[in-house]
Design goal:
- The complex is a heterodimer of chains A (about 170) and B (about 300).
- Chain A has about 170 residues and is an alpha+beta fold.
- Chain A is built from five helices and eight strands; from the N terminus they run αββββββββαααα.
- Chain A is elongated.
- Chain B has a three-stranded mixed β-sheet with strand order 1-3-2, sandwiched between helices.
- Chain B is built from 15 helices and three strands.
- The chains are: A alpha+beta (about 170), B mainly alpha (about 300).
- The interface of A and B includes residues 124, 126, 129, 130 and 147 of A.
């Protein structure tokens, strides 16, 4: 009675190995996947395929990256903001993330130097704190951009614009 | 002097000196730090312990000083970023954002702090809410704007939030925490028993700040907000009508309902103010049509 059990175990193990091999193969068999998703809580995208290539951005878990090529165990990918860079294949999965895993999705931090970003003199308040916040926490770049846009819009409104707005709406101080 | 007597005495001295800070620059924070240090040394504490007491006393005193405007802006900027990260992104309708800023700035220019660089944003969030960060960063959710009926209601809600900034409510909340930290620091130095230090901090909190203090701020913001929106030329009943409506729609008031006092209390207080101040007699703009046109993208979604 021991022999069939042993054989069953061997067959089952072989089945598992075949299935695993098939799954691993399926990722590459059909060619390069069109889109990959970041697996860990965050991953680094570099400007080149080399390990020491400058960092381009830090992306969060579940971020969808369009694959545009491969090089040295890395995917050449397009970031959500359109820039292209390289990410290690083991940092990604072809499986889309669950809704809960998408919370951190997106470019968490722009890792390029200020000069490359074309940043002008620091905007008062928001810019300085954004730097600090982004440096200590995984704050999506979109949130920093939203805060800057909020501040810039208000600054762009001149007293004459407000006067005209009040006049058009017949809003008259008592 | 026994230890049980020394601790309340040093506390009493610090509280008294700190309180002086609110009335005028009698002593600087540094002075109070030094006095605390000397008092602790005189009561037989080691140099290290005395320094810690001095630092704690300085923190308590510093807690009563107003936050400088640049610090207020830095803090507000950080809160703004976190609001967009955690509450919701900026709603993608430039025309609506511009309109909300025009209404907000129209009201803010009449406020007690017109020099503040106010900015307003509509954030995409299904919870009815509006909140103000220090330094003039003011937010209103898409759900709140959807629940409004006219420009006077929007002006009223924004005026309420502007009032939190003009009355430096956030500042006062932060001061409370800073004061508690100061007390904990003193408590830790005077007695190594962390539980005793924590208890002292709680007592300090009970003495200096009564419970329900946030509600007082909310009522104050309602009162200041009513007057502010009216002085800008809007119908005084805007805020009152909005609060009454979301109060009736039970369960839909979201964050605004959980962080603000009961709507019925607020409406009753505002009704009283509207009559006693004669605000309803002033008329004022309502602008339902302009509001509808500006918020059309919300109605469509």
């Amino acid at each position: 009675m021991k022999l069939p059990v042993r054989w069953m175990a061997i067959v089952a193990a072989a089945g598992v190995m075949l299935a695993a091999g098939s799954a691993a193969f399926s990722q590459t068999r059909g060619g390069t996947p069109k889109t990959v998703y970041v697996k860990g809580s965050s991953a680094i995208v570099r400007t080149g395929p080399a390990t020491n290539a400058p960092q381009l951005a830090t992306v969060g878990k579940g971020t969808a990256l369009a694959v545009v090529g491969t090089a040295s165990q890395r995917w050449k990918v397009r970031l959500p903001d359109g820039r292209q860079g390289f990410i290690t294949q083991i940092s990604t999965t072809p499986d889309p993330p669950s809704a809960s895993d998408r919370k951190l999705a997106g470019v968490l931090r722009d890792d390029r130097g200020a000069g490359e970003m074309g940043a002008g003199p620091s905007m008062r308040g928001v810019s300085a704190t954004a730097e600090a916040a982004a440096g200590t926490e995984l704050i999506p770049m979109k949130a920093v951009a939203d805060a800057k846009a909020m501040e810039e819009l208000a600054k762009s409104i001149k007293p004459a614009d407000i006067d005209m707005f009040l006049q058009e709406g017949k809003v008259v101080a008592p | 002097m026994t230890k049980t007597l020394r601790i309340p005495l040093i506390f009493a001295a610090v509280v008294a000196l700190a309180a002086c800070e609110t009335t005028g620059p009698i002593l600087t924070t540094k002075d109070i730090q030094t006095i605390g240090q000397v008092a602790a040394a005189a009561s037989g504490k080691s140099k290290e312990e005395s320094e810690q007491v001095g630092q704690g006393a300085g923190n308590v005193a510093g807690a009563f000083s107003p936050l400088p405007y640049d610090k207020e802006r830095d803090l507000g900027g950080t809160i703004a970023i976190k609001a967009f990260a955690n509450q919701g992104p900026r709603y993608a309708d430039d025309k609506l954002q511009y309109y909300v800023n025009l209404v907000g700035l129209s009201v803010a220019r009449r406020s007690a702090r017109p020099e503040v660089e106010y900015s307003f944003a509509v954030i995409a969030d299904d919870d009815i809410n509006a909140f103000a960060g220090p330094g003039g960063y003011i937010f209103v959710t898409t759900a709140a704007v959807r629940a409004m009926r006219n420009e006077a209601e929007l002006a009223g809600v924004l005026a309420h939030e502007i009032a939190h900034v003009t009355e430096r409510h956030m500042n006062q909340m932060l001061r409370r925490n800073q004061a508690i930290n100061g007390f904990v620091q003193i408590g830790n130095a005077l007695d190594e028993n962390a539980r005793a230090a924590g208890e002292l901090a709680k007592q300090g909190e009970d003495i200096l700040f009564n419970r329900g203090y946030d509600q007082r701020f909310e009522y104050e913001a309602d009162a200041v907000g009513l007057e502010l929106a009216t002085s800008a030329g809007y119908d005084a009943r805007g805020l009152r009508d909005f609060v009454a409506r979301i109060g009736q729609e039970k369960g839909k008031s979201g964050g605004w309902g959980s962080t603000h006092p009961a709507s019925s209390d607020r409406v009753a207080r505002m009704d009283q103010l509207l009559v006693s101040q004669g605000l309803t007699e002033l008329g004022g703009a309502v602008n339902a049509d302009r509001f509808r046109a500006a918020t059309a993208s919300l109605a469509a979604n």
